[in-house]
Amino acid sequence: MKKTFAIIAGFALLLIIFLFTEKKQENLKEEILWKINPTKISLFPPKNGKEFEGNFINERIDFVRYANLLKDTALFSISSIDKETGRNIVFECGYHCKNLFTEVSVLKILSAVFSEESYRKNLNIDADSSSIIALYDNGRILKELLIGKESSDKARRFFETDGKIYSAHSYIFNRFKDYPQNFRERQIFSTVNSKMKNMEFVSENKTVKIQVAQITENSIEKNSYVRTSQKKIIIEPLLGDSLEASLKSLKIELYPDDKNGEGFSVANELTKSKENFKLKIILTNNIQVTLRIFPMTNIKDVKLRPIVRQLQDITESPAYIKEEDFKKIEEDFEKIFTAESYKKPNAKTEPTNTKPDPKK
To answer: What is the average per-residue pLDDT within 237-264?
Structure first.
């Protein structure tokens, strides 16, 4: 009996040393704590109103995953409350969100111990002074994590959930230190896992619709473009490729809450009327992106276009694109609007020498 007690006590002591020692730990073994599938991750600042140690974002932030019909094509959003207007601001969240959902869905821990007050105090875990990360599935809370301090080597972060204290890699939690703007997807039409299938441009006096198909010629994959509005015609590949390149490179230049963004009050005012132009892109993964484009404005002597983007069920808050980028897209659509049907040139032949051979 004494021997058994000694063994248990020895293991407990090793666990405590392993968890709380201030010396750097090498080759810590990972264990999977859980496998869950949250649809929302929320960060809450400390309830006592003070800033949490470690420079965590000191406001509520929500990350939401929107499932798509095709595998690996989920969309993500990041939302928070704008301090100026008190309104919710929403934008698409880029690859940072995908990585975050992957990491917390299959959370790997490095150590664990039952929660006791002395441990909680030593690790700065407290219901009022800790930041909280909550994981939800369609409104139902799955897990709630009280965040504690980092280890001295900055490699691990401690947290409490379900009556135990765990440590996990710090880089997972360091994502909650970044500015919300850095999570946002600036590229308007992201084609990372897809290609453009349909393009549509609508202005006050014209509509241009284009279908895109992928073809293979001489073992080279390329696009074929067909204008389906007005008279249906095949478009010269160079015209279509130029438009596609312009659309792919289009990005958000300025957010209203950036340093020089003038705030959301101004942006909301600029986008409250009907848009001048509308761009609609359907991707091969069945995601539809609609961009409403409003009259040009000047912010800090820079010509910009206010825009509102919608991706499936996500309607974003206003932002700005460069006027010159928009004009290039408008010009490309205009060229296609007035284009004649493209006829594929005949196969090239070797030039014929018509001059007499001086040797003959």
So the answer is: 96
Q: What is the pLDDT of residues 163-209, one digit of tens each?
A: 999 999 999 999 998 778 889 999 999 888 789 999 999 998 999 99
With a cut of 80, say whether residue 12 has pLDDT above it. no
Question: How do residues 142-165 score in pLDDT, each as one tens digit?
Answer: 999 999 999 999 999 999 999 999
Its pTM stands at: 0.84
Q: What phi, psi does 336 have (nearest 5°)? A: -75, -35
Question: From CA 67, how far away is CA 154, in angstroms rounded?
Answer: 34
Gap between the Cα atoms of 84 and 262, Å rounded? 11
